């Protein structure tokens, strides 16, 4: 495990174990050995997909400062705005393996305990002063940092806080110190902050914000509440999207039925914990097992034996295979194009206002889930990307060419890696143009038109694509 942890310092994008899709219990993993992934690292990437390696990437255990490509641009480009999508940090499981003891993880924040961050103590102190801050209901009823000696289900851990303090500090060094994105006397309307109603997303957003703007003025902070994990605001009703989702879930179910080794493994684990196989599977044991792995806690045992690493590898390997088939069958892509459209449309609207010289909402932060980031990545055409790890970050940068002030470009980065030219709307651009970025109009055209073209049919707008007959 120590080897794997060392290797993961230089890698980009993990496979997962948790839900790709809201409201479903569908699971997905990552990449296949036969496919080349975005920016693989030949030094540390195993020659074939290793389920434990992939799982440890997913844990994203804080270690040395990572390399990142955020903020890289020729000197004559000026940074105009930044739009950050994050997955919450490391959390306690959402499920319990039946008849076993819950993993003992402490969710209080202790400054001298690993993983350590120099701003952790100051973060706790600052959060304790935030009771008068502005949070849209129901966020105002949530705790601002994790604080239970035995973590509650789904609670952010100290690891999760440290992951986002690191993210925030990294973005501060690049966007504030180097590029001066915000003035020193920044105002409330220059930030746009939005989170789902889970404590882990609010707390992750606050940890990143504290790393980005240490000791920020609470009076300038306003977090909006987003009821949907897709961040679709008033555009959530989309029957065709739900039809893609149902077909994708059916695909996942049929793939699982074909995997006799997976069924045998669930059967063995069910005997160990003395419950029916169906009940064990419904309890999503991989979610709890990942917590054991990420926190170096032994897998649970009963008088009938122990859940072990071989069980874990079989389930994780199935997820990796599921991810490969998911890409090939394209049902999830249809779901993603419709699922990600509202938030991408909102983002390009914000960018277009910034190109007109508007100074509000220069830094946007969406604190979200794997089921938020995954459809956006898929919709952008980043099919080779790993599933969003804990504290994953997807960033859209908007730049202005000082030599041609009317020209604006975008860069897209995932966990610090520039993936702009891997996107479906810009993968051919650099073959035709020497420019180091993608023209903003490529992204706008993609969101306004090409996303619907990719779905087939004759729809030219979101409403028609969502209500298409005969799908």
Automatic annotation (TrEMBL):
<comment type="subunit">
    <text>Interacts with B3GAT3; the interaction increases the 2-phosphoxylose phosphatase activity of PXYLP1 during completion of linkage region formation in a B3GAT3-mediated manner.</text>
</comment>
<keyword id="KW-1133">Transmembrane helix</keyword>
<dbReference type="InterPro" id="IPR000560">
    <property type="entry name" value="His_Pase_clade-2"/>
</dbReference>
<keyword id="KW-0333">Golgi apparatus</keyword>
<keyword id="KW-0378">Hydrolase</keyword>
<dbReference type="Pfam" id="PF00328">
    <property type="entry name" value="His_Phos_2"/>
</dbReference>
<comment type="function">
    <text>Responsible for the 2-O-dephosphorylation of xylose in the glycosaminoglycan-protein linkage region of proteoglycans thereby regulating the amount of mature glycosaminoglycan (GAG) chains. Sulfated glycosaminoglycans (GAGs), including heparan sulfate and chondroitin sulfate, are synthesized on the so-called common GAG-protein linkage region (GlcUAbeta1-3Galbeta1-3Galbeta1-4Xylbeta1-O-Ser) of core proteins, which is formed by the stepwise addition of monosaccharide residues by the respective specific glycosyltransferases.</text>
</comment>
<keyword id="KW-0325">Glycoprotein</keyword>
<keyword id="KW-0472">Membrane</keyword>
<dbReference type="GO" id="GO:0006024">
    <property type="term" value="P:glycosaminoglycan biosynthetic process"/>
</dbReference>
<dbReference type="InterPro" id="IPR050645">
    <property type="entry name" value="Histidine_acid_phosphatase"/>
</dbReference>
<comment type="similarity">
    <text>Belongs to the histidine acid phosphatase family.</text>
</comment>
<dbReference type="InterPro" id="IPR029033">
    <property type="entry name" value="His_PPase_superfam"/>
</dbReference>
<dbReference type="GO" id="GO:0016791">
    <property type="term" value="F:phosphatase activity"/>
</dbReference>
<protein>
    <recommendedName>
        <fullName>2-phosphoxylose phosphatase 1</fullName>
    </recommendedName>
</protein>
<dbReference type="GO" id="GO:0000139">
    <property type="term" value="C:Golgi membrane"/>
</dbReference>
<keyword id="KW-0735">Signal-anchor</keyword>
<dbReference type="GO" id="GO:0050650">
    <property type="term" value="P:chondroitin sulfate proteoglycan biosynthetic process"/>
</dbReference>
<keyword id="KW-0812">Transmembrane</keyword>
């Amino acid at each position: 495990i120590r080897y794997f942890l060392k290797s993961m310092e230089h890698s980009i994008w993990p496979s997962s174990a948790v839900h790709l899709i809201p409201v479903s219990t569908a699971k997905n993993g990552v990449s296949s050995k036969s496919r080349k992934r975005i920016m693989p690292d030949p030094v540390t990437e195993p020659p074939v997909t290793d389920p434990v390696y992939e799982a440890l990437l997913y844990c994203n255990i804080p270690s040395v400062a990572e390399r990142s490509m955020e903020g890289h641009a020729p000197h004559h480009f000026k940074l105009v705005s930044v739009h950050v999508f994050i997955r919450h940090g490391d959390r306690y499981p959402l499920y319990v393996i039946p008849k076993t003891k819950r993993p003992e993880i402490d969710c209080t924040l202790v400054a001298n305990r690993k993983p350590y961050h120099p701003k952790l103590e100051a973060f706790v102190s600052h959060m304790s002063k935030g009771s008068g801050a502005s949070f849209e209901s129901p966020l105002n009823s949530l705790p601002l940092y994790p604080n239970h000696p035995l973590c509650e289900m789904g609670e952010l851990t100290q690891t999760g806080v440290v992951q986002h303090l690191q993210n925030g500090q990294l973005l501060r060094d690049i966007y504030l110190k180097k590029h001066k994105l915000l003035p020193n006397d920044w105002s409330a309307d220059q930030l746009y902050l939005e989170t789902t109603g889970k404590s882990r997303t609010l707390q992750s957003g606050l940890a990143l914000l504290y790393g980005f703007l240490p000791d920020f003025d609470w009076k300038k902070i306003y977090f909006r509440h987003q009821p949907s994990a897709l961040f679709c605001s008033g555009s959530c009703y989309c029957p065709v999207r739900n039809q893609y989702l149902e077909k994708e879930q059916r695909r996942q179910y049929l793939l699982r039925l074909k995997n006799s080794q997976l069924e045998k493994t669930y059967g063995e684990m069910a005997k160990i914990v003395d419950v029916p196989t169906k009940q064990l599977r419904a309890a999503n044991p991989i979610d709890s097992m990942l917590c054991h792995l990420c926190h170096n806690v032994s897998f649970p045992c009963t008088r009938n034996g122990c859940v072990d690493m071989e069980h874990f590898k079989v389930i994780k390997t199935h997820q990796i295979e599921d991810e490969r088939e998911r890409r090939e069958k394209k049902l999830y892509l249809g779901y993603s194009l419709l699922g990600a459209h509202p938030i991408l449309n909102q983002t390009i609207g914000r960018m277009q206002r910034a190109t007109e010289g508007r100074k509000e909402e220069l830094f946007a932060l969406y604190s979200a889930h794997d089921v938020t980031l995954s459809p956006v990545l898929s919709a952008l055409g980043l099919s080779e990307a790993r599933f969003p790890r804990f504290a994953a970050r997807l960033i859209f940068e908007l730049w202005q060419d000082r030599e041609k002030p009317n020209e604006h470009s975008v860069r897209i980065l995932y966990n610090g890696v520039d993936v702009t030219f891997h996107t479906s709307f810009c993968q051919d651009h650099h073959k035709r143009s020497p420019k180091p970025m993608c023209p903003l109009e490529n992204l706008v055209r993609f969101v306004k038109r090409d996303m619907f073209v990719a779905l087939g049919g004759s729809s030219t707008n979101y409403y028609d694509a969502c209500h298409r007959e005969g799908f």
